[in-house]
Automatic annotation (TrEMBL):
Entries under SUPFAM superfamilies matching the protein: ApaG-like (SSF110069)
Gene Ontology biological process terms in this record: error-free translesion synthesis
Organism: Flavobacterium tibetense
Domain ApaG: 3-128
Protein name stated in the entry: Co2+/Mg2+ efflux protein ApaG
Length: 128
């Protein structure tokens, strides 16, 4: 698990290899990841959007931007943790992801970015 704290918001990510799939006559490697957003600040915050950079060992990189996470824009009060699961397909058995969440602080009404630390995606058979 990797973790990072930005402005009192702790992001933790846990990953898992889910298997291989054939899509469009090519093999793809499926990974799931669970993200926990823990509000260690004194203010309520809301996640409004996300930015992901997805890398694989074949240098086929992808950038994904979108509103919220898994169809939600969660509000996380002080001391609360919001957790969600998602996934991605890579063209290689090894890769990584990183990014950030755009959030709003309800007290100051200011937007800010929370860093999602780089986490590795690797199929067990690909690691020596």
């Amino acid at each position: 698990m990797v973790t990072q704290i930005t402005k009192g918001i702790k992001i933790s990510v846990l990953t898992s290899f889910e298997g291989t799939y054939f899509k469009n006559y090519k093999i793809h490697f499926a990974f799931s990841y669970q993200v926990s957003i823990e509000n260690q600040s004194k203010d309520s915050v809301q996640l409004t959007s996300r930015h992901w950079e997805i890398y694989d060992a074949l240098n086929q990189n992808e950038v994904v931007d979108g509103e919220g996470v898994v169809g939600k824009k969660p509000v996380v009060k002080p001391g609360e943790i919001y957790t969600y699961s998602s996934g991605c397909l890579l063209n290689s058995p090894i890769g990584a992801m990183k990014g950030y969440f755009n959030m709003i602080n309800f007290t100051s009404t200011k937007s800010f970015k929370v860093i999602i630390p780089t986490f590795k995606l690797s199929a067990p058979f690909a690691i020596n």
